Amino acid sequence: MIKNLESNFKNIQLRIRKDFELCESSKNSNISNDSWKRKEGGGGNTFVIANGNFFDNCAVNFSSIYGKKLPSSALANTLKIDVKNGYHAMGVSVISHPKNPYIPSSHMNVRLFGILNKDGLINNWWIGGGYDLTPFIPIKEDVIEWHQAAKEVLSPINKGFYKKFSNNCNKYFEIPHRNERRGVGGIFFDNLSSLSLENSMKMLNSVAFAYLNSYLKIANKRKKTKYTKVEKEFQLIRRGRYAEFNLIYDRGTAFGLQSNGRIESILASLPSDVKWSYKKDKNYKLMEKKLLKMINRDWNV
Q1: Among 19, 98, 119, 233, which is least packed by CB within 10 angstroms?
Q2: Class (C level, CATH) for 2-295
């Protein structure tokens, strides 16, 4: 069972990796494809494109790890599950930071947590994941299409999922110390065990590929848009919000650190080029005011 589940996640990673490679036209981009092992059990693969014509950086991670103590970020206490025989967690996470500020940053994650029995087999399990969009120069049309695609992929599974998961996403990606959201949302779910294991994996596949198709549609529409130095500077400063969220609030980052994960892979989600600036000029303030109107509202379609 575990090998089949791992194979499914590896196929998701491979599909996204190949499509992201097609986005990058620069032969001088820095591409890494590293397989790694974890001392406590398990391992994974990290694929990164950096310093390209399309991507400032992106990462597509697969991991499959196991151990005896489930990290607190996995919500074991809330679920009141007996983990005396250990756990096995696996999934794919994706982060993209394009060079062009007209193309949003994006994030996707699909994962499965399995609780093992005395024979080392998955006895209890739940899934989680979702995806979200972080624009810098927001375009209303793209945001609506992004949410519409999420609704279309979830409605055949459960008509109530989109509204619930969209609201989850809005709440999860809040940055309390900034009193703003990270982006325009998407979907987010966790601790879902109401479907069969087979249908759960089908759902994770559907979510992953809906993300990929939606994101590539936006990227292909906006990749030739010319941008100014002012717009690029704005993007770099606003990326600071992304870094702040990932380092302070993100449960995926916390899980990686609490499970003694591979630091290079965990922090590959951070933007390679980012700025913090104390004093903001008028251009920045005007652009930020427009952006905040877009991100601090519910886009549930």
Answers
A1: 119
A2: alpha beta
User: Would you list the DSSP string of 143-170?
Assistant: HHHHHHHHHHHHTTT-TTHHHHHHHHHH
pLDDT in tens, 104-136: 999 999 999 988 878 777 778 899 999 999 999
Dihedral in degrees, nearest 10, Cα atoms 169, 173, 174, 175: 180
Sign of the alpha-carbon torsion through 212, 218, 222, 228: negative
pTM of the model: 0.92
Tell me the catalytic residues.
107
Question: Exposed (0-12), middle (13-18) or buried (19+): which is 22, by Cβ within 10 Å?
Answer: exposed
**Domain residue extents for the chain:** 2-295
**The tokens of 228 are what?**
């100014």
Q: What is the pLDDT of residues 208-237, one digit of tens each?
A: 999 999 999 999 999 999 999 999 999 999
